[in-house]
Amino acid sequence: MSRYSRNKKRLRQIEGRRAVIETILSDKKISHIDMASNNEGLQIDQIIDLANQKKIRINFIDKKSIAKKSSTKKSQGIILYIDDNYQSSVEEMIFFADKRKETPFLILLDRIQDPHNLGAIARTAEIFGVHGIIVPSKESAKISPGSIRASAGALEHILFAIVNSMNKTIEYLKKMNFQIITLDMLGKNIEDFDFDKSIPTALIVGAEHNGVSKSIIEKSDFILRIPMSGDVSSLNVSVATGITLYKLKFQ
């Protein structure tokens, strides 16, 4: 049985006040909201106002019922239910960038299994104008209440694709004239990299322990590393992604 709630349609849970606000502000199709009857605060007032404006039904129920329904156990007394139709495609991401008259910039996550890392990366990616996030169908975190909460709702504003083969996806992107940039400890110092913003780009990052798989590294056009001078041997993947995006976007 799925962790997500189900009615006649498959619904996905969005939990936490900020994530709920961001979801309501997006163009997603919302089913309804469950809210603890004793919930108070400025964000709760904002949620109620937005829900009334968009004619979204709010069910006021007791706090224990909300806690029982929560997947993250950090719902802050509110759960929003949305149609589970979040998946996009690589082609849609490229079209989205073209529609905005921007050079496509995508992020591929190789075997990142922590939903909180996925959420944190999505939050940073959305802020820096990334056009989509791509993950493999196996050995990878997917959109979940935990990842959405960690993204502060950003996963509701960025295109997200699940692919069967990362290697075939990279081969397709190369045919579409993308430059493939991979983060790896043995790569070139990012400070010495002359990034061409006019070329469509796919940035690939991997989990801390395993890194990016060898087959993907071999397909990469550029392999970069972030210089470090401390005693810790590696950065959290979401932090490393944020540093890299800042460097590539604003150098």
Termini separation = 48 Å
What is the fourth-level CATH superfamily of the largest domain? Answer: SPOUT methyltransferase, trefoil knot domain
Q: Spatial order of the strands in the main sheet?
A: 7-6-5-9-8-10
The figure for the number of domains is: 2
Overview of this protein structure:
- With 251 residues, this protein is of the alpha/beta class.
- It has 2 domains: 73 residues, Ribosomal protein L30/S12 (60s Ribosomal Protein L30, Chain: A); 161 residues, SPOUT methyltransferase, trefoil knot domain (Alpha/beta knot).
- Helices cover 35% and strands 24% of the residues.
- It is built from 9 helices and 10 strands.
- It has a 6-stranded parallel sheet, sandwiched between helices. The chain has a 4-stranded mixed sheet with strand order 1-4-2-3, with helices on both faces.
- β6, α6 and β7 form a beta-alpha-beta unit.
- α1 packs parallel to α2.
- The longest helix is centred in the C-terminal third of the chain and has 14 residues.
- The N terminus is likely disordered.
From the structure above, extract its key features.
alpha/beta, 60s Ribosomal Protein L30, Chain: A, six-stranded parallel β-sheet, 9 helices, 35% helix
Write the layout of secondary structure elements.
Elements: E1 11-15, H1 17-25, E2 30-36, H2 42-53, E3 57-61, H3 63-69, E4 78-83, H4 90-99, E5 105-110, H5 115-127, E6 132-136, H6 145-150, E7 160-163, H7 166-175, E8 179-189, E9 201-206, H8 214-219, E10 222-225, H9 237-250
Parallel strand pairs: 2-3, 5-6, 5-9, 6-7, 8-9, 8-10
Antiparallel strand pairs: 1-4, 2-4
Helix pairs in contact: 1-2, 5-9
